[in-house]
Design a protein that fits this description.
2 domains; 13-stranded mixed β-sheet; binds coenzyme A
């Protein structure tokens, strides 16, 4: 097996690779990542997204890519035909020169193989499983579905700053927020919400199925929900949160009811979402709404290993004990 820089792969070969991955997502998740993959492929061709392929007998048997942004290295894919391939690809990422620009490594993956989890655990990533939940919707026949709670209104572009602040408050100090805003900073939340509303990574944003509590003049909404289309008939609740001071009063449920009702009226066949299995309140909310688990995603993170010099040793001895922490 040879590990190669994926930027040298021909466009045809890359297309076949991404198309195979797209079909895997479509059949397992009913999620069409074509728009997101197109952005990745453009960046690969321009040489701005690093990654690797594993090749054996001329055939690609595994691939990975990653980005480094704001000190965080994010692994966007890690797939291989065998556990050994996955392990070797992960080693290649963690040995890549770009790691120098990161203080933390993240991966949010839909693993096709249990070996992804094993490889990340072996390199001491902290792992958190996220359930991909689905609610199948009945077709609307005749009557219009019930309108959402009067206290809610559809999202407007001017809600963006208020929702950024809401998400930062709602997840403050919560470890599960690391996959959205690695250090909980307001600029990280702004970047995340901007990407959700404007970029293709989480599907195509749907303002008509995204809901906010309170009046349009309210700069501090108590609840908000953002939804995207991940396929023409699959509405995805990409984020929902309620201010800590307003919890337990059915606002979370009202936001979800509104998203489901608006998905029905737009002809969606299902509503999906991702939830950390460790997020007890959210898991319980979705269970009461009769969502069921369809697949599992894996979030992993770790600090970049640092080289540690033991204090108080002479330089020669210190060199001898130079350790890789990871
Ligand atoms: C999850 C969240 C949106 C729930 O909002 P909420 O307004 O407090 O929820 P509701 O009052 O509508 O509660 C609806 C159901 O959720 C469940 N639930 C809510 N809070 C719960 C808690 N602390 N523990 C267990 N179950 C809980 C219950 O089943 C509840 O039904 P019940 O009232 O009949 O018991 C809120 O806790 C939150 O913003 N959390 C941080 C952000 C987050 O994790 N978002 C989800 C990402 S996937």
């Amino acid at each position: 097996m040879r590990i190669e820089d994926w930027r040298a792969v021909s466009p045809d070969e890359a297309h076949r690779l991404l198309e195979r991955e797209r079909q895997r997502w479509l059949s397992a998740l009913q999620w069409d990542p074509a728009d997101a993959w197109a952005v990745v492929e453009d960046a690969r061709r321009m040489g701005t997204v690093p990654g690797f392929v594993a090749r054996a007998g001329g055939r690609i048997i595994g691939w990975t890519f990653f980005i480094v942004y704001d000190g965080v290295l994010k692994i966007g894919a890690l797939e291989g035909d065998t556990a050994d391939v996955v392990r070797r690809l992960l080693e290649a990422v963690l040995d890549a020169p770009e790691t120098r620009f990161a203080s933390e490594y993240h991966s949010f993956l839909f693993p096709g193989h249990s070996s992804v989890e094993a490889a990340l655990a072996r390199r001491r990533f902290v792992l958190d499983r996220h359930a991909y939940l689905e609610l199948r919707l009945p077709p609307v026949v005749g009557a219009r579905p019930a309108l959402p709670d009067a206290a809610l209104r559809a999202w407007r572009p001017s809600d963006l700053p208020g929702l950024v602040r809401l998400f930062a408050r709602a997840y403050a100090g919560d470890e599960i927020a690391r996959c959205f805003a690695p250090h909980g900073r307001i600029d990280e939340w702004a970047g995340y919400v901007n990407q959700l509303v404007r970029g293709p990574a989480l599907g195509r944003f749907e303002p008509a199925c995204s809901w906010v509590s309170g009046s349009v003049r309210d700069a501090h909404p108590l609840g908000g929900l953002l939804a995207t289309w991940v396929s023409p008939t699959n509405l995805h609740v990409a984020q929902v949160a309620v201010d800590p001071g307003a919890r337990g009063q059915s606002l979370g449920r009202s936001l979800m009811d509104a998203a489901i009702a608006s998905a029905v009226s737009q002809g969606a066949a299902r509503v999906t979402l991702l939830v950390a299995r460790s997020n007890a309140a959210a898991v319980s909310l979705y269970r009461t709404l009769e969502f069921s688990e369809r697949a599992m995603f894996l979030f992993g993170w770790r600090q970049r290993p640092t080289r540690v010099l033991r204090a108080g040793l002479a330089p020669r001895a210190a060199t001898a004990v130079l350790q890789e922490a990871g």
